[in-house]
Amino acid sequence: MRWQVAVAFVAACLLGADSPDEAAKKDIEKWQGAWRAVSMVKDGKSAPEGELTKIKLIVKGTDYHFQNGSFSEHGSYRFNASANPKELDIVVGEGADKGKIYKVVYSIEGDQLVICVESANKNRPKELSSNAGSGNVLETWRRMKP
Predict the structure, then answer these.
(1) How many domains does the chain have?
(2) Could you give the CA distance from residue 105 to residue 117 in angstroms, rounded to a whole number?
(3) H helices of 17-124, where?
(4) Would residue 95 be called left, alpha or beta, if left means φ above 0 and alpha means ψ between -120 and 50 degrees?
(5) Domain enclosing residue 67, as ranges
(6) Which runs of consecutive H residues, i.e. helices, occur in the chain?
(7) Sign of the four-CA dihedral 103, 107, 108, 113
(8) Is 3 part of a structural domain of the chain?
(9) Inter-residue contact 68 to 54 (CB < 8 Å)
(10) pTM
């Protein structure tokens, strides 16, 4: 009888948890819209606010359009929202970097999105941080109001 209770408990826990696909679908929905960069920290050093005003991101489905002044790039995202921290592959869809994949970790809550990428893009960061000497870039984005 005890094993039946244990099996029922485990089944209830598994059914209550989001599957990896469901977790990704929920996060994809959260990413939709236009975003403005509000903070970028590389190796512990913050980018000047004046540089941030030129940077924006538009997400539709799993496709993105990144713009920094006159630089523009399109591509797509692949989400792994069940990882901890959550993981994202940014697949560049055009230009000299077409096909390049950036290995990112992220967090999204409400109208704030935080992503972290290693500058060299050899390894996926283990956490959302950009301490001096880490080689990481930590970006904070806010959703733009329509």
Answers:
(1) 1
(2) 7
(3) 20-31, 49-52
(4) left
(5) 20-143
(6) 2-16, 20-31, 49-52
(7) negative
(8) no
(9) yes
(10) 0.83
